[in-house]
Write a structure and sequence with these properties.
The complex is a heterodimer of chains A (about 550) and B (about 80).
Chain A (H helix, E strand, L loop, with lengths): L1 E4 L1 E2 L4 E9 L14 H29 L2 H15 L1 H14 L3 H17 L4 H5 L1 H16 L12 E5 L4 H5 L6 E6 L7 H9 L3 E3 L14 E5 L4 E4 L3 H24 L13 E6 L5 H6 L5 E5 L13 H14 L4 E5 L27 H6 L1 H14 L4 E6 L5 H20 L9 E6 L2 H5 L1 H4 L5 E4 L1 H9 L17 H16 L3 E4 L7 H10 L3 E4 L1 H12 L3
Parallel strand pairs in A: 3-4, 4-5, 5-6, 9-10, 9-16, 10-11, 11-12, 12-13, 13-14, 14-15, 15-16
Antiparallel strand pairs in A: 1-8, 2-6, 3-7, 7-8
Chain B lengths: L1 E6 L8 H11 L5 E6 L2 E4 L3 H6 L7 E7 L3 H15 L1
Antiparallel strand pairs in B: 1-4, 2-3, 2-4
Helix pairs in contact in B: 1-3
Classes of the chains: A alpha/beta (about 550), B alpha+beta (about 80).
């Protein structure tokens, strides 16, 4: 068994027989010609035939794939009509007195090099377009056929590389997956794989084709970007299970998407997503989240050696808000402590960072950091539906102090005439026992609560969940925890505010019914947990 | 000669398809039409030339037209860019 790694274009799994595709390579024989004008005529005729072929591909793509894919061929036609391209070929024929094949090949090379040298990944991938159209012309000049691949049974297609015309001319009902040696995630092969929903891995390197022969079993793991050639029994069984799981999940998605999070008796509860970065957004939308119940803002501060600027933060928040198209996004202000790698914060070493100078404590002590983040959030709030949430709260005074700073920032923005959501909602995490116990008091100061069950559990049980030697003492459903959650929910509703759960407990299906009975308004979970949770909710009386 | 400056708003810059459509639009007119981005310029009727400029989002380009139909050419191209780029 050989395992190769590449760049995955699509999350999916395929297990099946491989079929190798090798393009007919014409070694371009260049030779001097005595009659350049007849070579020019040959080229012109071949160019017209190529245009007709491309037009046919355009039509096929339009009916079988989509307009976006078809447009690839539209661009190919424009390239083939381009005067720079045509003049370069014809002048090579005339001035160097070479045959048409040589001229087309040389021109293709130089244009492809021009694209490959650009500093934009998208443009670099366009070199393949030039090669595709030129390859067509060459094929016609040398009398080859169109190079179509006919598949007899569902197979995994392996090749050094595929150009769009090859990809589109394939029978997509018989292709289980693509794997190629070359290729970037910006290449047309990749774009097509994404559009057609086929697992694909590109950039696997030059060991791929050499180690394959037709009908060999291959596993394509689009989740990990790995290809297993001639897998052993263990791998085959593990991956088959993964494939089954993925099929079930996709069926679930198809079935539950768009359906409400409603029990049989009609009780509705919001199911939102927790995200750590804007790139998680695709999963949020794919899994039909009603909103984002926790946008962890720490990613902006981690993995760097200076503070993120207001502009950087603003762009990130704005992206998320716009992508969510008016669906609620709860942005938690920075939740960092000495246990994270943020040297530039200059946090003093602590023996007990979990109980230390972190999160809102840093923000209130060093308001410049806080104000920069709040300014970015408020500016972004003009572009969607944002809520602000403070972490690690233990007292009403902390809330008042934090809100005072928010008001200050609002005033400053107003003076500058910068737009923001004047009615932006402000809430807090309930993740300390203190906050849970006095939640009836705190509810008077905020617009919502979100229960951070992970930390609440640790602080309440005085247990570090990562310490496996304590497993016998740890109870994720400890009655103390459930009482605190119930009390928090009561406090919230007594004061007319909503309460959600954004920690892991939110996705715990053993507790869903209890949470619904408590009147929890919202569960915010990882995107992959949304639809299974919806299924659970819909199965509750 | 008539010209106008335009800042590209499309997050993908001037990519293959819009470049092609831009070229098609420019091709309708007799005037010589040039696109300038920084120190580089290209003939707006030639797709490879336009793509080679590698115009990214936020870049300001200048379009200039010279010829008997320069006014309608500039108007049409400006309208096209506003709508698609």
């Amino acid at each position: 068994m050989l395992v190769l790694e590449g760049k995955s274009v699509f999350a999916g799994i395929a297990i099946g027989p491989v079929i190798l595709y090798k393009r007919m390579v014409h070694t371009v024989a260049g030779h001097v010609v005595t009659n350049p004008e007849s070579e020019v005529a040959r080229f012109r005729a071949a160019r017209l035939t190529a245009q007709n072929q491309i037009k046919a591909l355009y039509e096929k793509a339009l009916t079988e794939v989509d307009e976006k894919t078809a447009n690839i061929f539209d661009v190919h036609q424009m390239m083939l009509d381009d005067l720079d391209y045509i003049e370069a070929i014809e002048s090579t024929i005339r001035t160097q007195k070479m045959n048409a094949e040589y001229a087309v090949n040389a021109t293709a090379d130089s244009f492809a090099k021009m694209f490959a040298a650009m500093d934009d990944a998208y443009m670099q991938a366009r070199a393949a377009d030039v090669k595709d159209i030129s390859g067509k012309v060459l094929n016609i000049l040398t009398g080859g056929n169109e190079g179509l691949v006919t598949l007899e049974k569902p197979s995994i297609l392996a090749a050094n590389d595929l150009v769009p015309s090859e990809t589109v001319s394939l029978d997509k009902n018989k292709i289980m997956a693509f794997i190629t040696e070359a290729g970037s995630t910006n290449s047309h092969t990749a774009i097509l794989a994404r559009t057609m929903g086929i697992p694909a891995i590109v950039g696997l390197g030059n060991k791929l084709v050499a180690n394959l022969k037709n009908d060999l079993t291959v596993i394509v793991d689009g989740f990990e970007g790995k290809v297993y050639i001639d897998p052993d029994a263990t791998t085959l069984s593990v991956m088959s299970a993964k494939l089954e799981k993925d099929k079930k999940h996709k069926a679930l998605l198809a079935d539950l998407k768009g359906k409400p999070n409603e029990t049989k008796s009609g009780h509705q509860i919001k199911v939102y997503a927790n995200i750590g970065q804007p790139k998680d957004l695709a999963a949020v939308l794919d899994n039909d989240a009603g909103g984002i119940g926790l946008f962890r803002s720490e990613f902006l501060y981690l993995g760097r050696d200076n503070f993120p600027s207001e502009e950087e933060q603003f762009t990130a928040y704005k992206t998320v808000l716009e992508t969510m198209h008016g669906k609620e996004v709860v942005i938690r202000t920075l939740d960092i402590g000495a246990d994270k790698q943020v040297g530039y914060f200059n946090l003093p070493h602590e023996d007990n960072p979990a109980l230390g100078y972190r999160a809102i404590r840093i923000c209130l002590t060093q308001p410049e950091i806080f104000k920069t983040q709040l300014r970015a959030i408020l500016r972004a709030s003009a572009f969607g539906k944002a809520d602000i949430m403070f972490p690690m709260i233990t007292s009403a005074k902390e809330i008042e102090d934090a809100k005072a700073i928010v008001s200050e920032v609002k005033e400053e923005l107003k003076l500058k005439g910068i737009a923001f959501d004047e009615n932006i909602k402000i809430g807090i995490m309930i993740e300390t026992p203190a906050a849970a116990v006095i939640s009836d008091e705190l509810a008077k100061h905020v617009d919502f609560f979100s229960i951070g069950s992970n930390d609440l559990t640790q602080y309440t049980l005085a247990i570090d969940r990562q310490n496996t030697s304590l497993d016998r003492f740890f109870n994720a459903h400890h009655p103390a925890l459930l009482r605190l959650i119930a009390h928090t929910a009561e406090s919230a509703h007594a004061n007319g505010i909503w309460v959600g759960i954004c920690g892991e407990l939110g996705a715990d299906q053993a507790l869903t019914e209890e949470f619904i009975k408590m009147g929890i308004d919202e569960l915010s979970v990882s995107p992959a947990s949304i639809l299974p949770l919806r299924e659970r909710i819909r199965n509750i009386d | 000669m008539k010209e106008f400056a335009y800042t590209v708003k499309d997050p993908e810059g001037i990519h293959a398809r819009p470049a092609g459509l831009l070229v098609k639009e420019a091709g309708k007119f007799k005037s010589k039409i040039t696109i300038t981005a920084g120190s580089k310029h290209g003939d707006l009727k030639r797709i490879f030339g336009v793509m080679a400029l590698g115009v990214k989002t936020g870049t300001t380009v200048t379009i200039s037209a010279e010829g008997e139909d320069e006014e309608p050419a500039i108007a049409a191209i400006e309208a096209f860019m506003k709508a698609h780029l």
